[in-house]
């Protein structure tokens, strides 16, 4: 408190101190702008994530996920694209994995979502199988007999190529009992098969299968010679339907050694002809 002047009996004047708090900009400050920018950034990241999930394939998403998997770091070191987002699973560069997948192509960078891939990763094989199945369905729909026999034909994609199995059952037999002579219905079926596979230039393999029923004692014939003879008869029937002779690579009989129904070796479905369209 201030002292009173000497010689005067006057009250001391109070000293008033005013403290003014200055708010920079008041409600016009930038704090809310920072919060809003954080919100917009988070929303942008969210929509970017949604776009990535919708615009990428399963393989690409797996590559992104593997990039954040520590256990794969050592394997990815030195891989093509190892410093990129996909971390060694580049869309256009080869990798050095133990079981590496085929490349999807090196001439384009934009890959459509519905692309089936290059020739090495199954796209061409899938189209080839679908095309064959379509031609086969058209041929089998040509007559009432063939429509009934359609269930005897099974198309399977294998590592070696497309395999067509022409199978017997309890009501249908490809060959007369114990012979290499095609039944009339089977001859018509093989003719339709030959016309369906005719446009494909791939090499062919014909393999004959029998069931495990044994021959009579003392009979010179056996399942080995029977299966091989039936494979040759099938080859000749295919040639009559228009398949050129130079397409055949292998004709063989395996008797009952590769049953379709292993738990029942005598099942009639084990008697079949397998026609392989090689890759």
TrEMBL record:
Organism: Novosphingobium fuchskuhlense
Keyword presence, Cell membrane: yes
Annotated OmpA-like domain residues: 162-279
Compartments, record wording: Cell membrane
One GO cellular component term: plasma membrane
Transmembrane residue ranges: 34-53
Keywords: Cell membrane, Cell projection, Cilium, Flagellum, Membrane, Transmembrane, Transmembrane helix
Protein name: Flagellar motor protein
Superkingdom of origin organism: Bacteria
SUPFAM superfamilies: OmpA-like
Family: Belongs to the MotB family.
Topological category with respect to the lipid bilayer: Single-pass membrane protein
């Amino acid at each position: 408190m201030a002292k009173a002047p000497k010689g005067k009996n006057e009250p001391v004047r109070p000293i008033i101190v005013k403290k003014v708090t200055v708010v920079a900009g008041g409600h016009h400050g930038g704090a809310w702008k920072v919060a809003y920018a954080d919100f917009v950034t988070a929303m942008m990241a969210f929509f970017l994530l949604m776009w990535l999930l919708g615009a990428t394939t399963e393989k690409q998403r797996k590559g992104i996920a593997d990039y954040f998997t520590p256990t794969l770091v050592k394997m990815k070191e030195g891989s093509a694209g190892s410093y990129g987002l996909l971390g060694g699973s580049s869309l256009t560069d080869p990798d050095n994995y133990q079981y590496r997948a085929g490349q999807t192509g090196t001439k384009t960078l934009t890959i459509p979502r519905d692309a089936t891939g290059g020739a090495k990763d199954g796209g061409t094989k899938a189209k080839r199988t679908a095309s064959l199945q379509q031609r086969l369905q058209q041929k089998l729909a040509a007559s009432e007999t063939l429509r009934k026999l359609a269930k005897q034909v099974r198309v399977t994609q294998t590592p070696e190529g497309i395999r067509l199995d022409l199978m017997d059952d309890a009501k249908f037999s490809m060959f007369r009992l114990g012979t290499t002579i095609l039944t009339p219905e089977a001859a018509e079926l093989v003719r339709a098969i030959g016309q369906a596979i005719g446009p494909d230039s791939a090499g062919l393999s014909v393999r004959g299968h029998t069931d495990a029923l044994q021959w009579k004692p003392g009979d010179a014939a056996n399942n080995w010679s029977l299966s091989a003879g039936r494979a040759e008869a099938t080859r000749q029937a295919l040639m009559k339907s228009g398949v050129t002779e130079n397409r055949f690579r292998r004709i063989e009989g395996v008797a009952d050694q590769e049953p379709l129904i292993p738990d029942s070796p005598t099942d009639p479905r084990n008697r079949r002809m397998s026609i392989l369209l090689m890759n």
